[in-house]
Amino acid sequence: MFLSNGPKILKKHCLASVLSVVGNGMQGMTSEGPQNFSSNTSTVVKLHHLEGDDEGIAVLGLNRPEVKNALGRCLVHQLEEITRALEFAKQVRILIVRSMVPDIFCAGADLKERAKQSQDELKQFIPRLRSSVWGFASLPFPVIAALDGAALGGGLELALSCDLRVAAETVKLGLVETGLAIIPGAGGTQKLPRLVGPAKAKELIFTAKVIDGIEAERIGLVNYSVPQNDNHDAAYQRSLELAREILPNGPVAVHMAKLAIDKGLEVDLESGLAFEEAYYAQTIPTKDRIEGLMAFKEKRKPVYKGE
Predict the structure, then answer these.
(1) Is 157 a catalytic residue?
(2) Dist CA 72 CA 180 (whole Å)
(3) Cβ atoms of residues 245 and 224 within 8 Å
(4) pLDDT in tens, 214-253
């Protein structure tokens, strides 16, 4: 298999690209859009950190235009490596995941690549695909998916792994795997019913139905749907606004709130309340909590440092 015993040259190439872009990602960029991203085609996942008032916001861009950001082995490996690095990135408070390819977020699985895989190779690859996609869910800060283009199959599952989703009204979204005689394999059967309810999730998965951003907001699949603009980045711009609303708040508190909500959803109410109590306790000894109280007393804006 590629990620463990497969072509060493390709694996080494993917890893080198990841290390390069993680290092380059420490350099800043503005909030303007795709033109700020490198055109280095060997790197299909690009990470950049915003500067100025937006410091603390990072943007991860998918950039595999020749296959509409399909989730092939190299892209999966780069996602896995970058999410591992982000777990320890103290300078990041919010991550926006977007596409650098116009009118597409992610087309799902790389079907041409998959057609060449044996059954054994596929059985080994799918857990790595699931792991790379759901790496976003365990990051210690909010992750926002900016959907300015279609997200189908594994592409929608990638968006489902994020905490929040913003979609342009015209984008196409769907878990279409049953049309290919398979089922969603990167978390879709579990996350979708938790968002929209089991009956609606079953309808969407059984029928392989594709919906637009407006319908997605109506059923609770996305937080916001927005009219697309001439630059085709309306969802990204709205995601940036949402990130800016989160940014001033205590990063430790936001992390603990994320954990309390995510853990609580998996258990009964009593156990969920116990999780809340435990994570609340983690905020008590922080310097940020004291800073919040002092700022309130002194009638000024708090300056939180994540400590």
Answers:
(1) yes
(2) 17
(3) no
(4) 999 999 999 999 999 999 999 999 999 999 999 999 999 9
- What mean pLDDT is predicted for residues 15-19? 45
Give pLDDT tens digits for 44-72: 889 999 999 999 999 999 998 988 998 88
DSSP string for 23-87:
HHTTSEE-SS-GGGS---TT-SEEEEEE-GGGTTEEEEEE--GGGTT-B-HHHHHHHHHHHHHHT
Q: Return the pLDDT at 134.
A: 83
Mean pLDDT of the chain: 85
Residue 144's DSSP bridge partners are 96, 164
Active-site residue, selected from the candidate residues 153, 154, 155, 174? 154
Strands 57-62 and 45-50, by their bridges, are antiparallel
pLDDT in tens, 140-172: 999 999 999 999 999 999 999 999 999 999 999
The sign one gets for the Cα dihedral 183, 189, 195, 201 is positive
The active-site residue, picked from 177, 185, 188, 260, is 177
Q: Which of 135, 157, 235, 243 is catalytic?
A: 157
Looking at 58, 70, 107, 109, which residue is catalytic?
109
Concerning whether 177 is annotated as a catalytic residue, the answer is yes
Active site residue 154: yes
